[in-house]
Amino acid sequence: MYDEIVKKILESIDEKIVLTEIYPKFSGEGYNTNKIDVENFHEIKKFNSNKKIAFVDGGNAEIIASANFSLNLIRVCYAVYQNNRKTNIKKSEILAFIKAINKNNEIYYKTSFFKTKNYIELEEISFNSFDHTLMLGINRAEISSVANAIRRFAELRLAKQIAEEKIADILVLDGNLQSTLTNENKYLNELYESCNKNNVILTALSKTSSLFTDNGNLLSVVLDDISNFPSWFYYPIVEIKNLNHKAELFFVKFHDKSKHIFRFEIFNVQKAKAEEIINLLATNCIDPIFVGYPYGLMEADKIARVSNHEKESLKTMFLVKLKSKNIDKYLSSVDAHKILDKISF
Prior knowledge:
This protein is an alpha+beta fold. The chain has helices at residues 2-13, 146-164, 184-198, 219-226, 274-282, 295-304, 308-322, 328-331, 336-342, and strands at residues 24-25, 31-33, 41-43, 52-65, 69-82, 85-103, 106-115, 126-128, 170-174, 201-206, 212-213, 232-234, 238-240, 247-253, 262-267. An 11-stranded mixed sheet has the order 3-12-14-15-10-9-4-5-6-7-8, with helices on both faces. It has a two-stranded antiparallel sheet with strand order 1-11. A two-stranded antiparallel ribbon has the order 2-13.
């Protein structure tokens, strides 16, 4: 049986790619795709520049939780590089307490923020528990899912601060420029306005991409197989007319020894700068730890990540303070899986 499974997997990944009429496949409206064509590959040519690049990322950890409340530490940071040298780093944090409330006879998840030493300023955030941008399937969204949305909003707000204070000439977000969450457009539009006003180039780089071709293959695999350049960017792929996605989209392979193809986006009104930015970013992608990926984003990820030790320390502190408040009956609503995970048979 196992040999048959292995054979099936190998058959699915060893299919010969024949370029006839292959198109990228996008979900949603407002995407007019272009046929895959080897003429759309462009060689990356690294060059040095005095321009400052700010890499932005975020992390979060759930400290204590039940089915109707969740306490989270949200951390966002930026790392600034110039001539491939780190010149500045900053991290901001906020504690977010999310509670289920009744609003107009519906269950909403309302967030209260508590400022830490280096906090990031956010307005009150509230989601309907049946918000389709948070739900998985048809069931009510879990309250813990709100924290990921808050982290995204915090990243965008931090990026806006960078643009307003002109801390860098170029912004690189971890992820993309597509608005997929309720109220996310508000934060993105503020960021677009600040970048335009202060002449800061706004880009985003996704670590993963699940874009397909119309025949079911992975777009990144197809592009890697047919390229004739050691390092390259591919453009044009698609004409984006979706009002929730103000971007020009590229695929990039930053280093000839890299096994990874990344999705790269730039604010659509700044698309004339794309080739320059891609070539510049390639100079930040030579670290052997993750060759072909910007070291600045690795640094931002490391700083923003909330370690298990931090999480457990905060959890212990809060549980000690809450010990006499009969909190166990609330925590038990979500910890059954954790108990089973610890049981050894």
